[in-house]
Design brief:
By secondary structure, the protein is mainly alpha-helical. The protein is 66% helix and 8% strand. It has a single domain, classed as Winged helix-like DNA-binding domain superfamily/Winged helix DNA-binding domain (Arc Repressor Mutant, subunit A, Orthogonal Bundle), CATH 1.10.10. It has a three-stranded antiparallel beta sheet with strand order 1-3-2. α3 crosses α6 and α4 crosses α5. 16% of the residues are buried.
Length: 154
C-alpha cells in the first residue's frame, strides 16, 4: 500500500507524462494485439491466453477455478471463454475425476494445433507492436514494475 503522504502530492511533469503514456498504452496495446490475433488466428487475447495456460499445464488440463486465476479472468469470464473454445473443439470440459464436483478444462489436439499456428504471427505482433519500443530499457526492472503493479491492483 502506498504511503498516504505520497498520495496527495501532485505528480511531477515527468511522472504525469509517464502516467499518461501508461494509460494510453493500456488502452491501445490490448486492442491492437487483439485485432492482430483475430485477423491471424480467429482467437482473441483471452482465448489465446487460456490456450497458452492449458498448454503449459500437466496433461494440458486444469481445474476451472485454478485456470481462472492463472488466466486472470473472473470465473464467469472464464466460463464464457471456455464455452467459446469448446464450440470450436479447442478445449474439452469435464467433471474433475478427483472429487466429481469441480470442472476441468483440457486442451484438445486441435487446440494445440491452433495454438501452434497462432504463435508465430502473434510473436511477430508482440515484437513489432511492443518489444521494439522497449529496446534499451532494463527489461528486468520493467518486468518487476509491471508485476508489482499487477499484484497491488489484483
Amino acid at each position: 500500500m502506498p504511503p498516504r503522504s505520497a498520495s496527495s502530492k501532485p505528480l511531477t511533469a515527468k511522472e504525469q507524462a509517464a502516467w499518461r503514456a501508461f494509460v494510453r498504452a493500456l488502452a491501445v496495446a490490448p486492442r491492437v494485439l487483439d485485432a492482430d490475433l483475430i485477423a491471424d488466428s480467429r482467437l482473441n487475447m483471452a482465448d489465446y491466453h487460456v490456450l497458452v495456460v492449458l498448454s503449459e499445464s500437466p496433461d494440458y488440463s486444469m481445474r476451472m477455478s485454478e485456470l481462472a486465476v492463472h488466466a486472470v479472468l473472473t470465473p464467469s469470464g472464464l466460463t464464457r471463454v471456455v464455452e467459446r473454445l469448446t464450440r470450436r473443439h479447442l478445449v474439452e470440459r469435464s467433471r474433475a475425476e478427483t472429487d466429481g464436483r469441480g470442472q476441468v478444462a483440457r486442451l484438445t489436439d486441435e487446440g494445440r494445433q491452433i495454438l501452434a499456428n497462432a504463435y508465430p504471427p502473434h510473436l511477430r505482433s508482440v515484437r513489432t507492436r511492443v518489444m521494439r519500443h522497449l529496446r534499451g530499457l532494463d527489461l528486468a526492472a520493467f518486468t518487476k514494475a509491471m508485476e508489482a503493479i499487477a499484484e497491488e491492483t489484483a
